[in-house]
């Protein structure tokens, strides 16, 4: 599909988004990528995007730099920019990074706060539930990331928090790509509630185990699909 075919969808997204023009462009492009409106591997040309969005090239250039920093966008040696094409190596690397840090951060948060209700996490769950029946995976994915963040910030360690914050958008990208292979967002919502129950009850070890299982399970179908694609490409190559 040509990028020009996505013009109406992108214009709608940029009109919906709040704050500054640069932020609107970034958020519109991010949502278009997470929703699959701009598919993996799609070229992102400043001039074309600026024309479609009705803005100058400056906010588009700034937005692409931010999206590149988040991992959604990549630039090759010729500085041609495109949507990241997920592969098995990338998905496993992101999973490994999250598994090494996020469950431990949540465990530390439980140790720090003990058994106590967490209103922010409950509100994030309610926000995610509101998107479950919609056809907007980007919004659901970002709401889920909000829930995860509400849990890991409880650790109070700015280094762990900053590391995990940098992973969040790419984690959303992997999640929404996985839902196109196997739409398991309803079961993931159940897992979120179980994890939060463990956190609020003060059972840090159970929360850590459940979160590890949750992170691993979320990308399992996507990894199988990527492995099959790689095997098919090798056979046909």
TrEMBL record:
Keyword Hydrolase: no
Entry coiled-coil feature ranges: none
GO molecular function, one term: DNA-binding transcription factor activity
InterPro entries: GntR_C, TF_FadR/GntR_C, Tscrpt_reg_HTH_GntR, WH-like_DNA-bd_sf, WH_DNA-bd_sf
Domain HTH gntR-type: 19-86
CDD domains: WHTH_GntR (cd07377)
Pfam families: FCD (PF07729), GntR (PF00392)
Keywords, comma-separated and alphabetical: DNA-binding, Transcription, Transcription regulation
SMART domains: FCD, HTH_GNTR
PANTHER family according to UniProt: GLUCONATE OPERON TRANSCRIPTIONAL REPRESSOR, TRANSCRIPTIONAL REGULATOR, GNTR FAMILY
Protein name, UniProt field: DNA-binding transcriptional regulator, GntR family
